[in-house]
Amino acid sequence: MRFRSVLILLLMFFATVVPSLVVAAGPTLNIGAVNGNPGQTVTVPVTFVSNGGSFSAISVDIGFDPSKLSVAMITATPPYPTVALAASAATAATAANKSVVQSLPAAGVLRLGIFGFNSSSCNENNNPASAACNKNVIQDGVVANVIFTIAANATGTITLTNISAAADTTGSVNQVTITGTNGIILANTVTDAVC
User: Fold this and answer.
1) What is the pLDDT of residues 101-111, one digit of tens each?
2) Is residue 180 within 8 Å of 143, Cβ to Cβ?
3) Any idea what DSSP says for residue 146?
């Protein structure tokens, strides 16, 4: 009888407490893996998976080894900043009327912001810094393509580190932590053909 009571208590515990401990998967932002030869330009996809959430903006810092990879730059005349031209918006971003803005805040760090502004939907203060300006939901899929040039002397696996975040669609820029995978570029070793 005592065993039955303990068993019933355990079943009640697992039926009520354990389900509340199960956490749904949050959003992910994954940096792709590609192959390329030294001296070649490669395009790395950045893929977003919402896992059922609604997100209107995404940011990611992609870390890379600047001795092995470079990004295209436009050097401007002061006071205008030098601008990275390494990424472009992809299907999932453009479908939500989003653009990709980018910068190089430090050596070996490419920062991407994926968001959009619609002046007709800005908040009552016409504040373009508010997420209310474009709360279109970003659907799952490739949100950006990042272009790197592999250095002539680079070989082996080059890691692209991923530090990302997102904003929900409430209009108040609620930052949400995103998990995801690092990317890799496999720089092939070029050998002379033997005849």
Assistant:
1) 888 888 999 98
2) no
3) E
